[in-house]
Design a protein that fits this description.
6 helices
Length: 161
């Protein structure tokens, strides 16, 4: 399962950090294909760990899909923030202005707040259709994947100077 999660994380990080990892001429089509594969692998990972009954699955999967769509919006905003940072970082040859740092910090914290709010709303919705233990398991799976992604982002994104 660890290698399966690594594939998911690698794909998500590649899509979230285009400014540090790719040139402007990278093919968008290849990224779209990669993201679809990552999403399918993530869904398979969740499915293989949830042990849902047929009735639970019928109620859970639409909520899962809705959450993933909303999470994708958060990821896109995070990607924009990372791209803006990368552009400022590259233009400043490793340093950025205080005004830019303040703006990017505000954007990064805003993304974190959106993610927490979304997670809380999702947990409440899932908690209405699954037992508490399965709801907690699902949130744990999402948290573990997000933690790995954030670790990889932290590892790849240089500090502000």
């Amino acid at each position: 399962m660890k290698s399966f999660v690594r594939v998911i994380v690698a794909g998500m990080v590649l899509c979230a950090v285009p400014a540090f990892a790719q040139t402007a001429g990278s093919a968008d089509t290849n990224m779209e294909i990669l993201m679809e594969k990552v999403k399918a692998d993530k869904k398979l990972l969740v499915a293989s760990n949830m042990d849902l009954t047929d009735a639970e699955a019928k109620s859970f999967w639409p909520l899962y899909e809705g959450y993933q769509k909303e999470l994708d919006k958060v990821n896109q905003q995070l990607g924009k923030t990372i791209t803006a940072y990368a552009e400022a970082y590259n233009q400043g040859k490793g340093s950025i202005s205080n005004d830019t740092a303040k703006k990017l910090l505000h954007e990064a914290i805003s993304v974190e707040e959106q993610e927490v709010k979304l997670k809380r709303a999702n947990a409440e919705k899932v908690g209405k259709v699954l037992p508490a233990a399965k709801t907690a398991r699902y949130i744990q799976i999402e948290n573990k994947i997000r933690a790995l992604i954030k670790f990889e982002l932290a590892r790849q994104i240089p500090l502000v100077y």
